[in-house]
Amino acid sequence: MNLADNLAEESWELLQRVRERAPLVQNITNFVAMDAAANAVLAVGASPAMVHAVEEVAEFVTVADALTINIGTLSSAWVESMRVAARTAARLGKPWVLDPVGVGATAFRRKTATELLDLRPTIVRGNASEIIALAGLAQARQKGVDSTQTTAEAEASAMLLARTLGGTVVVTGAVDLVTDGTRTVRIANGDPLMTRVTALGCALTAVTGAFAAVEKDALLAATAATAVFGLAGETAAKAARGPGSLRAALMDTLHGLDAAVVRAGVRVEASSPST
Amino acid sequence: MNLADNLAEESWELLQRVRERAPLVQNITNFVAMDAAANAVLAVGASPAMVHAVEEVAEFVTVADALTINIGTLSSAWVESMRVAARTAARLGKPWVLDPVGVGATAFRRKTATELLDLRPTIVRGNASEIIALAGLAQARQKGVDSTQTTAEAEASAMLLARTLGGTVVVTGAVDLVTDGTRTVRIANGDPLMTRVTALGCALTAVTGAFAAVEKDALLAATAATAVFGLAGETAAKAARGPGSLRAALMDTLHGLDAAVVRAGVRVEASSPST
Amino acid sequence: MNLADNLAEESWELLQRVRERAPLVQNITNFVAMDAAANAVLAVGASPAMVHAVEEVAEFVTVADALTINIGTLSSAWVESMRVAARTAARLGKPWVLDPVGVGATAFRRKTATELLDLRPTIVRGNASEIIALAGLAQARQKGVDSTQTTAEAEASAMLLARTLGGTVVVTGAVDLVTDGTRTVRIANGDPLMTRVTALGCALTAVTGAFAAVEKDALLAATAATAVFGLAGETAAKAARGPGSLRAALMDTLHGLDAAVVRAGVRVEASSPST
């Protein structure tokens, strides 16, 4: 497969498509990520809406172009809204993205994530510990919400999870991995300083919703979103003086990315099908 | 009327008054806007408090100088708090500002907004789509929370709404319009990049609360708040590299605005009474 | 006692320890502070988690290294979670920090704070008005959530509260005071512009949790956290153009603080035991 040959170009084309269509992305995300996620979605040219009340969540899905669900700060009321929203998206054939924040940390999160997986997310994005926990391959060693495991350790889990779901799984880390169980892509963009800014993974999840809204091939959408976001982060990190200025510069860079920077900067590598 | 002749000067005088009196502004706002709204209120020299629990919301209104209510991220519990808070403000004669975020998008929002309108907000601030939906003049074409209609399209709705309420209505957009149903002002400050930063409209609503706390003429308070905020945004945009640096620079500029910049920069135009 | 002679050096050592151990700090904080608190905890090298659902809050405390509880945006459901979390921390002997935001403002806050005090926080951090209200020494003159009283006015209250609790109390203001009822330290770091950025006190509370996680002497942990945070703020303020750039620069500076800056910049003064 020559998927990777074109991925820098494809990433640029998808970013342009997001900017032109300005898809409406509904996010049920955590309280920490609300600001960063909304700003990142705006910075790529899409329109974010944070709507979670059970009274309106389904109605809103009918007008949204994509849905993202993030379990970072759960409560029972929100879990009900998540279920209703995901069910509506699944029924309407709209793409939806699951971010299983800290899923290995508590029984409540495991239960919630399991229920949401039954509703077949189009894309799941998490760190290595989260994807491993989700795949049930290993006893999660996750302590908090940050990852203690590497992308390589999570690869088998990601493939298993993708095949079980019939969906696409993204593992973000020093190297990012995107797989639909058959095709696998590795992305070498990003910068370690990004881990010192809160909610950037959650913001990427929301941005992934924007890309999935304009591209039916979920592997391609997830890859482009992850590459573009990582490229913006590494570009921003070059001039940043620390995590505070990195965050502002990331939004600036996402907003201003042009063809030359994306074509030259996206670093992807595709594996042969492993089966 | 020669309202506009003095509006730059009036804006500067009201900003000074906010800085001197540091009014306490209680905000029941959405989760995305909490940070931006609190920072904007601090940046103009007032004191923000985000208090929404039904157990304490009325008690807090009694000590606050103004109240703002924003329906951006609703839930049933918060709607009850909004009602109690607005009723208390109305009873005590304290100014309160309504921000009908995404009111055209769902039945839950329309119902909530309708109930809150009955409690007679001093000022309503929204984008064109929101004000049109609120005035019930047109079938709302609003998809998400961003506006798809222009200020000019919303003018008749704004005037109708202002007369019905006996209040002041602000429509923000490329040009902002402020009307009390008789007097109408247009403000040409602001910058298009501001639409790429989340919650700046919500932040302006909170800042409008600060101005309404120090000036009984709601049209004047709303005009000064909108002009000062827009001026800070356009000044910040000149040096910003994108939406991330714009947001930080907006807070810096709001905090540092001086008489010369405000007097020279505020661009307002008053219409003759249209009846 | 020669506590103060070594406090700059101790502050540096504790900051290094936080960076090496990267303690997991669980925060039940308010909606305004979520972003700033998480970013500050990351900036000092620790790992934040915002977990408040009653279904998982106790389970999470068992894996966390410290807990912080902030009553800034209360609701009944969260109060229950706060109680459960604090009780679990107390039972497991894990350090926990209480931030009684606006405690003098409403009966609901006073009641909640009183219940939480019964669960013996390791450290209480508030502004002068909050500490005075908490100590019950004076009728609180607190209007909103900002302080109208000085650190000096709060000193007796802080000492009484510390002795009653058997804990450490931090009063932040123009000068910060840290006392365990016997030992008292004053810290002269910080910058007035910090009061124009929302939630920096709340962010310090979360950072104090990170320091308490790596140092059993709570007075020392609280002093180091307060001094390091204040030093980062004053360093950042020198180059900031206002509150927006200050906030970003504060995170940058916290992340980059080195031995030379900390040793030279921390300004502490210890009092003799006052009994």
From TrEMBL, chains A, B, C:
Its EC number is 2.7.1.50. Substrate binds at M50, A199. ATP binds at R125, T172. It catalyses: 5-(2-hydroxyethyl)-4-methylthiazole + ATP = 4-methyl-5-(2-phosphooxyethyl)-thiazole + ADP + H(+). It is an enzyme of class 2 (transferase). Keywords: ATP-binding, Kinase, Magnesium, Metal-binding, Nucleotide-binding, Thiamine biosynthesis, Transferase. Pfam families: HK (PF02110). The keyword NAD does not apply. GO terms for biological process: thiamine biosynthetic process; thiamine diphosphate biosynthetic process. SUPFAM superfamilies: Ribokinase-like (SSF53613). Pathway: Cofactor biosynthesis; thiamine diphosphate biosynthesis; 4-methyl-5-(2-phosphoethyl)-thiazole from 5-(2-hydroxyethyl)-4-methylthiazole: step 1/1. The keyword Endoplasmic reticulum does not apply. One of its GO terms (molecular function) is hydroxyethylthiazole kinase activity. Belongs to the Thz kinase family. Catalyzes the phosphorylation of the hydroxyl group of 4-methyl-5-beta-hydroxyethylthiazole (THZ). This is Hydroxyethylthiazole kinase. It comes from Vineibacter terrae. The lineage of its organism: Bacteria, Pseudomonadati, Pseudomonadota, Alphaproteobacteria, Hyphomicrobiales. The gene is thiM.
